[in-house]
């Protein structure tokens, strides 16, 4: 009888060990995003789900270079926002030294390049090569987002083929840039800015993407994918979070709506993420397939219970 009890205890311990996929050091999951609303939203989704699974996710708003250095130095664990090809030059050194690894593409159908209001496009600015012809109307300014995120615009200005001597990039923030875009469109003034999808700007404003930026943003108006990245070794150290990251994908419609909660409704990222998850709870089956809570319980049931779904 004693042997039976001992064997039973061993089996129970083995089962518990099998389900406890992640070590204690994995409980705190350190994320970062550069202050872009698409990444604020997707990071918010990850944070809400990880919290419901019993983890303690943290998220900071940092410049892209700081994010990459943080992952290289193991001060950060993951980043959901590697835009390819727009961020290739940022990532290249870390790809070469192996300090940052790609997990999977989490979004397809994105794009990112120069944009102008439709009335500016109709006036003759249809390609990056047309900008210099209207230099005075533009005030020799391009409008970008956060400092550290506008290098491709600066590279275009430095390229002699576009004749943009004396031009400069006005750096502020995503919200600051879009505020300026809205004002200039209202006043029917000329403005060139960074446009991208997914983003509610595509329905908020009447604008066109410029051709000619392939050298910097890639072909087809900067057609892009977005990839999840982690610091070297994280996937092996924290296999349950790794499974979650391998499952976590988005699409343009989901992100446009989710970003709208942040931009138009003034919701905080986690609140917008929770609303999106609630309205799209059918996605949880795929997002949480094979994922457990931190203490080894079935993840899907736990998240639904925790979030009241």
UniProtKB/TrEMBL annotation:
It comes from the Bacteria. One of its GO terms (biological process) is choline transport. GO terms for molecular function: choline binding; transmembrane transporter activity. GO terms for cellular component: ATP-binding cassette (ABC) transporter complex; periplasmic space. SUPFAM superfamilies: Periplasmic binding protein-like II. Residues 29-273 form the ABC-type glycine betaine transport system substrate-binding domain. Residues 1-20 form the signal peptide. The keyword Cytoplasm does not apply. Keywords: Signal. This is Choline ABC transporter substrate-binding protein. It comes from Mesorhizobium tamadayense.
């Amino acid at each position: 009888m004693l042997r039976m009890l001992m064997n039973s205890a061993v089996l129970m311990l083995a089962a518990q060990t099998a389900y406890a996929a992640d070590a204690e050091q994995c409980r705190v999951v350190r994320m970062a995003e550069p202050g872009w609303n698409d990444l604020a939203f997707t990071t918010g989704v990850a944070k809400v789900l990880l919290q419901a699974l019993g983890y303690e996710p943290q998220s900071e708003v940092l410049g892209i270079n700081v994010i990459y250095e943080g992952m290289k130095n193991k001060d950060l664990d993951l980043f959901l926002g590697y835009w390819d090809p727009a961020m290739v030059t940022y990532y290249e050194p870390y790809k070469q030294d192996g300090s940052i690894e790609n997990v999977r593409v989490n979004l397809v159908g994105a794009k990112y390049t120069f944009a102008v209001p439709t009335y500016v496009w109709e006036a003759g600015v249809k390609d990056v090569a047309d900008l210099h012809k209207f230099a005075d109307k533009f005030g020799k300014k391009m409008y970008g987002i956060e400092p550290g995120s506008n290098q491709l615009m600066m590279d275009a200005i430095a390229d002699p083929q576009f004749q943009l001597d004396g031009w400069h990039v006005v750096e502020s923030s995503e919200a600051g840039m879009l505020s300026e875009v809205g004002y200039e469109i209202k006043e029917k003034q000329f403005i060139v800015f960074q446009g991208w999808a997914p983003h509610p700007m595509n329905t908020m404003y009447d604008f066109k993407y410029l051709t000619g930026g392939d050298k910097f943003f890639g072909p087809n108006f900067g057609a892009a994918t977005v990839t999840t990245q982690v610091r070297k070794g994280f996937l092996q150290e924290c296999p349950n979070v790794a499974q979650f990251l391998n499952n976590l994908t988005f699409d343009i419609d989901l992100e446009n709506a989710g970003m709208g909660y942040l931009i138009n409704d003034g919701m905080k990222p986690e609140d917008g993420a929770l609303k999106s998850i609630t309205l799209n709870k059918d996605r949880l089956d795929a997002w949480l397939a094979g994922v457990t809570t931190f203490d080894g319980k079935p993840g899907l049931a736990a998240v639904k219970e925790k979030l009241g779904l």
